[in-house]
Inverse folding.
């Protein structure tokens, strides 16, 4: 289905970096030649404002790597607290050895308009990215640079370019992974004057 | 002074990535030819486990960029909540136009053993990094890759490779910047089983 969920609102591209700026753990989704997959990645960051760029590390051992290499596209999906168990699951298990890992871990996807890259339901932000080919980075460091072509956010928690975690249901707080199944959720806001 | 504060404990290099894994905003410190500086950066991430590597974006317009280009070294300092105002200050003002910006914003530094790179007092984690020269990344994307040679953490909040935000004083929670003076502090922990 190429329709967006009701609460999924477009984010202007010049504000897209704000979805990642506070350092959430992401789910990397991709599709190629009829196959799609999702993996977890704690290693991503914004790299530019406009046009927005991001970096993400995608290990050669992952099935996602083959799909990104094949298609030249990926999406960064920002999971919220209710997806903690699923995020750990798709970060631990590989589609190489567990072909039905998405079903097993309860990951459901939807398709954005005019794209084959699946987006993950239950996330609070989504960045659709086209790979800017940098073969040396990709080969030496597993480091990918993507240009963000579209971005969306859950309007219950991100509005007018700002996360509103303190006003939204706690279940919509983003996840920040450390190791060994240990996450932290994002906490309270602090506004500081210049 | 080349002595570490009492609570500043070495972190084994194979656990150093965990200091950054949850996506905190960092302070980038550097020194060259008798000058030192500190700037804020929300755009950094781990890039490898062992030897640990990191990426960080350092804009050409910053004074820090000249010091990193000159010395080949930088440190990523992880500020805690009490440094929010100072972090915004050194991220907003440039030493190019405000040479005393560190004093104005109350940033105090100390030196680690056998290094000229200043570390920022009041932070809860520190990663000393040697630039792995990648001229194309640096020139095209302002993207630096560093190998972590030493890491330390505040033992009141990071122990045995784990952040203990829920046990430590709230003032030691890390900062996660969005935009316009808006930070979030890291929130509560969630342990998820595989």
């Amino acid at each position: 289905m190429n329709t967006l969920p009701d609460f999924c609102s477009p984010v202007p591209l010049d504000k897209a970096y704000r979805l990642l700026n506070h350092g959430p753990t992401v789910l990397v989704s991709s599709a190629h030649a009829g196959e799609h997959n999702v993996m977890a990645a704690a290693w991503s960051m914004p790299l530019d404002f406009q046009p927005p760029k991001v970096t993400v590390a995608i290990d050669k051992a992952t099935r996602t790597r083959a799909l990104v290499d094949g298609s030249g596209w990926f999406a960064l999906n920002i999971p919220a607290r209710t997806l903690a168990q699923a995020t750990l699951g798709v970060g631990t298990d590989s589609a190489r050895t567990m072909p039905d890992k998405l079903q097993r871990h309860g990951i459901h996807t939807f398709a954005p308009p005019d794209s084959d890259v699946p987006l993950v339901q239950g996330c609070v932000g989504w960045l659709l990215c086209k790979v800017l080919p940098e073969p040396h980075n990709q080969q030496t460091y597993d480091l990918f640079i993507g240009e963000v072509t579209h971005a969306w956010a859950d309007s219950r928690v991100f509005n007018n370019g700002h996360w509103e975690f303190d006003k939204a249901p706690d279940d919509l707080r983003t996840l920040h992974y450390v190791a060994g199944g240990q996450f932290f959720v994002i906490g309270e806001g602090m506004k500081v004057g210049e």
